[in-house]
Amino acid sequence: NTVKETLQNTALNVKSYALITKHLFPSSTLNHPFAFSECPPLGLESLKVKDSQIQASSYKRMGLGPHRGRLNIQSGVEDGDIYDGAWCAEYKDQNQWLQIDAKKLTRFTAVILQGRGSIWSLDYVETFKVQVSNDTIKWKPCMNATEEAVFEGNKDSETPVLAILPEPAVAQYIRINPQTWFKNGTICLRAEIMGCELPDPNNIYPWQAEEGTKDKLDFRHHNYKEMRKLMKSVNEMCPDITRIYSIGKSYMGLKLYVMEISDNPGKHELGEPEFRYVAGMHGNEVLGRELLLNLMEYICQEYKRGNQRIVHLVEETRIHLLPSMNPDGYEMAYKKGSELAGWSLGRFSYEGIDMNHNFADLNTIMWDAIELETDKSKLINHYFPIPEHYTSEEAMVASETRAVIGWMQTIPFVLSANLHGGELVVTYPFDMTKDWAPKEHTPTPDESFFRWLATVYASTNHVMSDPDRRPCHNEDFLRYNNIINGANWHTVPGSMNDFSYLHTNCFEVTVELSCDKFPHASELPIEWESNKESLLVYMEQVHRGIKGVVKDRDTEAGIADAIIKVDDIDHHIRSAFDGDFWRLLNPGDYDVTVTAEGYFPATQSCRVEYEHYPTICDFHLTKTPKQRLREILAKGGKIPKDLQLRLRQLRIRKLRASTKLINRRRASQQRRARGAHN
């Protein structure tokens, strides 16, 4: 009757009413006590609801205006700026309200409330009423039988509380009307509204829902069992190009599954670069997890269809997708659901460790060495060893972190991205500032290429590249073109990005995928479409720069751990176990030098073009006579005549050099003696 009454008040005819009720709410669901779950959020948190759609009776100041009354919105470090953590009414009375215009006739089913996000103030609403309207003039209260319903609100400022309307209310506008609030605080709230948009009676195809993408993928949230099942189904669909393996277990024993995609799964092919995506480091930042599951489905489908872009990517790249680095944290957030998990539930490991700060801090080791070492030629700039204290069993290192480090050390990754959520920006190393400054631009020697990588993802992402989008929380990254040096945002000691750059050959950025850490399932198709091109084009960057194989000139065997140096870039890389290497570089001309223990150095010029394929720069190194002698003697062999002659020449050269040095010293001593005598 409530639905019928409201619809009749909107002057819809009987035919339209019948159409709406038939297609939107079948009779079996109209009286279901948990019907709210069938309706998605309007989108206050995801920013689908525009600022202009939110109004209020009053507000303290602009930073606490109605546009800040969004679920999980985060304030700045200081109260009083334009980015505060809630809508706060100017007055403390029961006549205050926050109003949302749904723009269309909507079946409202529930309200989710949260207090003010602030580290300095404690403000939240304890009880509230709800009213609806179609014209903002005549308001109808939500009733509980014969009385106006009063809903339970918050008991703290962070935990979201769900209030299900006793009966779904159909209208265009909805108001939240606080009745009581924390006694030592004021009226402040953040909110989300659950509601189903009613079909437009003027639309002759009302049953056709708007789709965010044409791709037929499994768009829903997958818990651990469902994730494993989906990965298995992709592997069964494309057994020739996929392989599932585990790199370890979480604290609670859940396996860290990886999907490998390659034309030769399970094998490192000479000259083929290794790429990885890692998602779910913070278990409650779930969009990356779903995007990687969608990505493996998509690559499988398109490869089978003969999509040449995908075929080329699979045949020329070995791809590794880790959808859930923190499965324990994800399960905690998943049980609460997308709107009720809050901002931090599931972020940490089961032990309470933030994995984003859990990798070995190699930055400090590097900067300390630079300050203390007087002979700069002795400094290293890559492959920094992990400190012993970090590897001990007593060290506070998550089992998940240890597993990922072992993975990094096993596979010669070239390029990676770490998928997060809660913002819209791409950050690049270094993530940690020198001297522990709160934030400061702290570039790597590969600053220009990292900026390119970040720009590639940000500029192709539909939401990030929208010049009219509003900031998520308290930072306007549009002014930086949606990319920023990580340390210039906030310092992060022990980040995976910095560790990857300093301990391995791999370049890695962090992608903050969405304002909402846990988007509703209904938003996943749109999120996929927004990120699909970005995910693909970023992977293709692994083929930029130079690649080659370092070989022994005599045996043609690959040389492992050869050091590849690029002039004017103070960061070297090393060849893999079979001698191949990849050096990511922007277009230009470079002098490249390769050194290896027991070999003479070799240098050549390599030009990197603008095309999407690497320049081949192979190196053949010649063993030093000493190295040849060591190898022959180790095998008990006879020294060849050419080597004997070469060694004799070296001994003579060394003898001459030492004789000259002795003569110089004697002459110098004689001069000093004569001077003292005079």
UniProtKB/TrEMBL annotation:
What are the Peptidase M14 domain coordinates in residue numbering? Answer: 220-542
Keyword terms:
Carboxypeptidase, Disulfide bond, Glycoprotein, Hydrolase, Metal-binding, Metalloprotease, Protease, Secreted, Signal, Zinc
Cofactor names: Zn(2+)
The subcellular localization recorded is: Secreted
The F5/8 type C domain is annotated at 37-196
Single GO cellular component annotation? Answer: extracellular space
Do you know which SUPFAM superfamilies this protein is assigned to? Carboxypeptidase regulatory domain-like, Galactose-binding domain-like, Zn-dependent exopeptidases
The record's section on SMART domains has: FA58C (SM00231), Zn_pept (SM00631)
Q: Name one GO biological process term.
A: proteolysis
Entries under InterPro entries matching the protein: CarboxyPept-like_regulatory, CARBOXYPEPT_ZN_1, CARBOXYPEPT_ZN_2, FA58C, Galactose-bd-like_sf, Peptidase_M14, Peptidase_M14_domain
Top-level taxon of the source organism? Eukaryota
What would be an example GO MF term here? zinc ion binding
Q: Where is the active site?
A: 512
UniProt similarity note: Belongs to the peptidase M14 family.
Q: What is this protein called?
A: Carboxypeptidase X (M14 family), member 1b
Question: Which species does this protein come from?
Answer: Cyprinus carpio (Common carp)
Q: What is the lineage of its organism?
A: Eukaryota, Metazoa, Chordata, Craniata, Vertebrata
